[in-house]
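Table S4 entry, Hydroxyacid dehydrogenase protein.
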Amino acid sequence: MTARPPILVDLKFDPETVARILKTAFPDRGSINIADPASKDRDLTGIDYALLWKPDADLFTRAPNLKAIFSGGAGVDSFMNLPGLPDVPIVRFVDRSLTTRMSEWVVMQCLMHLRQQYQHDKDQRARIWGKLVPPEAAEITVGIMGLGVLGQDAARKLMIMGFDVIGWSRSGKKIDGVETFGAGELDEFLSRTDFLVGLLPLTPETTGFYNAKLFTKLRQGGALGKPVFINAGRGKSQVQADIVAAVQNGVLGGASLDVFAVEPLPSDDPLWGLENVFITPHDAAVSDETALFRHVEHQIARYESGEPLQFIVDRQAGY
């Protein structure tokens, strides 16, 4: 039996973790880890499959004969613009664990703003017994932008917590129990929204999408007085200077941000010091490497047995 070529892996995750798990992953074909110095001069022209997250710029030049590409995360923007991207199927990472982690983060942020956790934290540090009377979740409308696997799961779990949930997507998807809006209904969607949750992929259309103009269209005078912006989608979809200005000027009552245009977020960035702004280091839904490798194995097995690949990216849409 002819040996099958190894899987090419270029994941800018924790290198020690990736190297350790790769020792036992893909046992029937092995792998080439770009992070391994020994791979520097390897001939990659015979490689069929690549697993990528923020790969080297010359990756597709070195591996020009790929049959399929697998993303190391839910998004694919880290390599869609690299030179030499072949015209082959591109598969997103969809996994129960990743989806659950994202929903946990979204629900946590909504609850922290609902229950005014920032003020409690301030009172604790000042040793003040400051009682608050927050609204109920049912008094807050959470508007989710991006209704893929992650957005739909977050919507279901927010509804369990009692929030009123609405959703927006360019294609106007239908979800049981959730009022949804399409491309031409953005202003109506925003005018109904108290907590705006961003889970949009990064495309040319969504770059800089969350900006000063958009924030002014969110509902003012709701149960908490001011709207809140929560983003765990892509950092380049938000204009960070506009977030700072909106919080400082009272257009936004607060924000929760897990993604940024530049990561790590520079220590002198004004976002760090804003009141009622929660910052997390792009770990809302960290990919589990073991689950990721299982996902790739499963998809390759489907492909080689004649079944269609799942979670294929629409290149025209960019996700």
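The chain has a mean pLDDT of 96.
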